[in-house]
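Kindly inspect this today.
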Amino acid sequence: MKKRLIQLLAIIMLLALGTCVCFASPTVVSPGANSVHDGDSILVSVKLTEKQTIRVSVIRQMEEVKAAVYETTVDEAGNEQTKEVSPAEYKPYDASKLTEADVALLAAGETKDAKGNPIKLSNGSAVKTLYGETVSGPVDYKNASDLGFYTKQISSLKPGLYVIQVDVLGKKIEQKEGEEASEGDYEIIESVKSYVALKEKPKETPVADNGIFSTRNTALQFLQNLLRSLFR
């Protein structure tokens, strides 16, 4: 009896493991996590190791410069009603002095440490709460094999802090009665984020003409003319 009970428990465990829903998370291989680059473009590359559909967005990080203003009124029935009088204002987050360690701190999303003290960046400024503004996407990509890559070059970006967000899509959300139909609404199984700071590309310093290159060009021209005269 005891032996049969053990066998039954073993079968139940095998069935439970067999029905376990497991999946591999996508990996942002480019740009590197918490990296800093010069220029106005980034190559987005996402590695997928199973058949799944993802949604890729490039989001620019913004900081609040003016909080929204709200007004609360009371109607005749005594109910309070709050409405926005003035919307919040934002500006792109300045990434010109960020290091890779700074980007990692911003990616963590924490503004205070365990003791409640503000977390500081390498330049002494405090980590702020940031807000997102989508500048590319969202783009849906369906991987139909066990190994695949989504790759796209994003150009004409301004200096700033950006987030590559990859959402793993699940089932399509069914519209309830009375709701407006909208395409592309899916359950989000998981979200993967990778932060990257873009800085303005340094201006190239013009090389002074010291006569070396002009001398080389003259010598080359002389040899070319000599060879032509020999083989005429």
User: Anything to note?
Assistant: The longest strand covers residues 52-66. Residues 14-21 have pLDDT under 50 and may be disordered. The helical segments are 2-18, 100-108, 212-230. Residues 67 and 88 are 5 Å apart (CA to CA).
